Amino acid sequence: MANRPPRAATRSGTARSGIIRSGTALVCALGVTLLALATAGCEDDTAASGRRQPATRADLAADRDGGKTLRLGEPTSVTYKRGSDHMRGALRVTAVSVRKGSHAELRTAGAEPSDVRTTQPYYVTMTFENIGENSLHYPFLNTPTGLEDTSGVDDQPLITGDTEVTACPGKDPDDFAVGAKVSLCKVFLVPNGIRPSVVTYSTGDDTKRPVSWKVTR
């Protein structure tokens, strides 16, 4: 008997093969989609968990002068960090001047003579610029500003409530936008016979190594 030629593939077999290939492609596509969604979900969970996010370029440029003493008028960049809501940012901070005040100016702001009689007021002027990537709400920029005297003691700031010393305005802005600049003054009470030595500023992650500015006579 003569050999018969092989039969051509039937139309039903071709269709079945196409269905199998289409199903395989669909499964692969679904697998890639599910993998992408799972990865995005993990990233969202990491952000929501409150873990510390990678530092921005502004953060990396900050805090290089921690523990150093600068000249008055010399700017430095520091990390801004507020504990209550974990808001982070970067500031350019400068101690501009330290000058003597007067008891008469303090009395106009409501200071009791008995509270300041044994001290000499000094006015410390600071400038701040928001060089970070976030607007800061109720930033309390001037709160970390300190004054250390020649005896190595941190001098006490004057607290007058809502009444400012006219010669030393220091009300913080409610909102500090990216790129904004502001000049603020703070009153310190230095014991009579003692001189101020350095202005300090400390915020962020390195509060034990504040930046300092040498006070000149």
Layout of helices and strands:
Blueprint: H1 11-48, H2 57-61, E1 69-71, E2 76-81, E3 88-100, H3 103-108, H4 113-116, E4 119-130, E5 136-137, E6 145-149, E7 156-157, E8 175-176, E9 181-191, E10 196-201, E11 211-214
Parallel strand pairs: 1-11
Antiparallel strand pairs: 2-3, 3-4, 4-9, 5-8, 6-10, 7-9, 10-11
> What Rg, in angstroms, do the CA atoms define?
32 Å
Beta-strand content estimate:
25-35%
> How far apart are the termini?
122 Å
Task: Please bin the fraction of helical residues.
Answer: 10-25%
- Strand ordering within the main sheet: 2-3-4-9-7
Average the pLDDT over all residues and give the rounded result.
76
Give the H and E element order: HHEEEHHEEEEEEEE
Number of helices: 4
Poorly predicted regions: 1-55
Largest sheet: 5 strands, antiparallel
Class based on secondary structure composition and strand pairing: alpha+beta
Question: Given the C-alpha coordinates, what overall shape results?
Answer: globular
Number of strands: 11
Task: Provide keyphrases for this structure.
217 residues, alpha+beta, five-stranded antiparallel β-sheet, four-stranded mixed β-sheet, 30% strand, globular, disordered N terminus
